[in-house]
Amino acid sequence: MLIALEIENFKGIATRQRIDFAPLTLLFGANSAGKSTILQALLYFHELVERGSADVDRTELGGEILELGGFARFVHRHDTTRAIVLRAEFTTPGGLERFGRGDLGSFFPNLDDDVASAWLELTIRFRMTPNFRGPIVERATIGVNGETEPLVWLEVGATLRDSEPLEVRINRKHPLFSCEVQELTDVWESISFRREAALEDFGEGTQSHDGGLPPIFALARGRMSALPAPTEPLRVIPAGDDSPDTIRTAEEVRTFLELVVLGTTAQLASLLRDALYIGPLRAIPTRGFLYERSGRLTSWADGLAAWELLLADRLTLVERTNAWLRKFGAGCQVVVQYLFDRDAAAEALSENHVNYMVRRLLLDTNAGSFVLPSEVGAGISQLIPVIVAAIEGRGGLTLIEQPEIHIHPALQVGLADLFIEAITRDHSRGLFLIETHSEHLILRLLRRIRETTESELAKGAPPFSEDKLSVIYVESPPGGVRVRQLRVDAQGEFVDRWPKGFFAERMQELL
User: Fold this and answer.
1) Which class is domain 276-510?
2) pLDDT of the residue at 426
């Protein structure tokens, strides 16, 4: 699960801002304050880790809904001399082993157990050399277990030639290295390239055990990025001869780097790859879309993937969606209708199949006939993708912009219970990051915290605690976007004062 995200020089954010996540994280703030920037930074992070590309126009998760426009558009103030810095902190519940190399024997016998969390920081800068011109992940820094000191630095070379390797430094002063491990890493230095470098380029805590700079290892670069692809084995290029001892030492360094670098970033990549992003305006499915079709590509960003899942579902998802529509009092239900299709029948006959039926989705509004989503209020088409995403969530990351759009206040409070159930279902380790303006949503969450603390929950109401909620307030003063976390106590009250008052507009209208 994501623990935190730090952002610097990305879109409206100039100085580094930190967002601490909880299973349910809400982003509040005025229009154009920078709330969506936080979600977009995560989508960009996914591209950097998965594909290595730093000059991104459209992201895989954002699809056609989100257009970043390239590095020159999303670097702060369009100033290409600035470096974008993104840092993600995350838990690492999975194994670090990637390619069956085995472990490092007695030196790191329990590395999988010893590394419970990690952080990855990427520095993206526009570079111009005779061989390359454009933005690139110039440096990748990795730490583990909440330690502020990095464990590994990876950096592209000066010329960016295709054959130029990455420069890798390992911090042997890190707490992960015991005294016994120094015996191993002393040997590692025998294959390192000893180059002069300024200590300030790598920060404090980077000296080796003898007080000098950490050894520099050469790592073959598989793509134009300081961060290796999480799915590709590493290759250490040793200095010196090709004796058996040198080859064995290079294998040890490679195994360590694959465990620490690829083992951790692969888990972050998996978390981001499986993320669901739902944009601020969900598409209303057309009449033709609501018929069963095989091989159709759909997107969560515009909400159509939710309708596709409902269409493909034989029973369970439709029933669960309808159960929530009843809880919301939405006044409609999803109906799966079976139809005879001549083309399907002809195809089935040619392949000796007996099923000539296709399905389509409609809505039952209790008015005596079924209708299309386009024939009811826009709010239902905006609500259903949010419900399906919450039900179908894979225990990972779900990003939703304005889930309350076009929805009546009575339904907005129901969103809170939907999200609570989603993050607590089956001990889920999922995270919902919600960009919202809804006063009704936060008021219901605060109420559930208070009722849980005081054991006053009504029958069927989901319990909720303050440790599962993070309320982030985003504002945009002249110096750039500022982010602050507003703490909530066990009584459902804000510990930190809400900027300008808690939804002061309502109080002003009541005067």
Assistant:
1) alpha beta
2) 64
